[in-house]
Amino acid sequence: MKKRSPKISEQVPDWVQGSRPLRLIAVIIVFSIGLVLFNWVVQPSAQFVRNVKTSYDHLVPRELEVESVPDVDSLIRKIQEATRMALEGMSPQEEEEEQENNKEEDEQGGRQEDRATDVFGEEAREKWRQLNPCRSRSELPGLYSRRKFVRDVEPNVQWQRVLQEYEKLHRACIQKVGPGNLSEYFLTRSNTSGCKFAVGAIPPGAGLGNKVLSMASEFMYAVLTQRVFVVPTATEVPSIMCEPFEGSSWVVDPIGLFTPWQNHMKLWNTSQELYEEIDRARSGGESDDVLESWTYGVQTADPPSYTCHPGNRFFCDTEQAYLSQIPWLYFDGCIYFLPKLFSIPMFRMVLEELFPDRLALTHVLRAVMLPSDEVWSRIQQADHVFLKNADHRFGIQVRYREGRDQFWKHHNMVNKRVLECAVRNGILPGNMTGRIKPLPGGNPVCVKKQLQNESLNSEASSRASYEDLAYPKVNVTTIFITSLFQGLYDFMTEAFTRNPPATGEAIGLIQLTHDNTQTFSLEEDVQALTEIICLSLSDHLFVTPFSTFGGLAQGYGALTPWFIDIQKDSKSDCVRAQSMDTCYQLAANTFTCPYDVDLDGRSVFDVVPYIKNCLDVDVPNGLQLITANRTCV
């Protein structure tokens, strides 16, 4: 006989079967226990499986107000407000309530007596400087101002004001979290400080030019969005640059606990995931007013290639409004993108006021990316021996991107084009044309200064001593060459050192290294920065197209270089650059802004008239800022 299965009622304990109320109470108890167990055990496990991304409780509204920064004073107020929030330790929710309650007073400059203050006295400042020396901060400007053929950039008072306030923000946030505690702060998904961060990381195999130019772009963005800019130790940039912010540190993640992002993908969301969430929030398909988000840290480059710079939607107002809500942004950069920050409407007005000459790169480099004392010692040694006493400094950077094979095929052609271009433009002596003079004419101010100089020189000559007449001064031109190969140095030596020019002037040549192959190491970065700064001290500069090494020297020196035309079939030897700003090489020239209807699909050049395509000889599909003309350049 088949055994009967017990009825469901027989499986339930007797005390539950007694009455309907008792059964209801039992169900409620069992449900409550299950809910507790789910919250304590199952849900945390699920969160861990979901790559730790659910641990940040954040809400994404359907729409966010786009807050433009209309002028420098507004930017400074935003930075000051972020500093105050950090000093007072407000959470984002408390910060939002505080800003709403006091918005009107802030606009009128009120509540000054209630504001927390950044206390960093002279004693603390002096101690920090002793621990973090930086001689280049005070000594480098003089090497640029001594140039006779180039009028250096004027100090930017507005930029200095912004930097002073940003330094306070950086110091407040790092001290709030605790020096050395940023890794733990990130890994625990904390947001107790109310600060936001931008990580300036570098993918493997990036040269120094790529590193520094991308970081300069990221830092500019961090200032505009009141983010604390930090740099992973693995980039090696903190080892060759000074600490830029007094009382603080930009070094983060010394043992690689959450960088690079490719090794810790569980901790970072991609930009695609963020944009998909924005699309859901904007679609109106959900019944609630807000959508729950797990976004704590976002990697800004677009998949699947992750091409070393922010994706197209990054440069839109709507996406920026959402990005402003995310505590950590990760830039895995190797491409300079600062020019396109000028195309973002919410930043354009303040950037135009801050940098009316569009020399943003030069001001960022000279303020933040300064050589450490070890690197500075090498620069000084090269300067004292080869550059200091020269009347005219001419820098040449030659890059053979395809290595030794390209060098052997084309170096004779390139060498001849360098010499022909230099002679034709009056940079080096020859029979084709006259020489460039200090402070060349054309501009009435320059002509006046040139005539004054000639008058002073005439008076000085009339008072010349017997020794001056017996040993007349010889004008010295120093040619500083950087290249992996020695071919140009040997060629120019043959042209000038062994065949002195008839003009009587002396031509000296120097090439510090010629390693034949490019490698990647801390020592390589130290030497590269040494040579880049030496190049930037030139009066005139020749660079190779599509080279960030030459572009970085151009940026430091605020120089308008000549591009050496290395194309075999080209009929020109060189082309003068159209700007002192270097090229954003992989830029998209049209906006992809699905929620900014006035921009979506439009050309960047139509919207921002001072952004142009890079020259055909350089990167024809890139874009760059056209810097304003400066007097006597």
Automatic annotation (TrEMBL):
Keyword Cell wall biogenesis/degradation found: yes
Membrane protein topology class? Single-pass type II membrane protein
Annotated region Disordered: the residues are 88-118
Highest taxon in the source lineage: Eukaryota
Keyword annotations from UniProtKB, A to Z = Cell wall biogenesis/degradation, Glycoprotein, Glycosyltransferase, Golgi apparatus, Membrane, Transferase, Transmembrane, Transmembrane helix
Comp. bias (Basic and acidic residues): 108-118
Q: What is its main location?
A: Golgi
Enzyme class, broadest EC rank: transferase
Composition bias, Acidic residues: 93-107
Localization annotation:
Golgi apparatus, Golgi stack membrane
The family database entries (PANTHER family) matched by this protein are listed as:
FUCOSYLTRANSFERASE, FUCOSYLTRANSFERASE 2-RELATED
The family note in this entry says:
Belongs to the glycosyltransferase 37 family.
Protein name stated in the entry: Fucosyltransferase
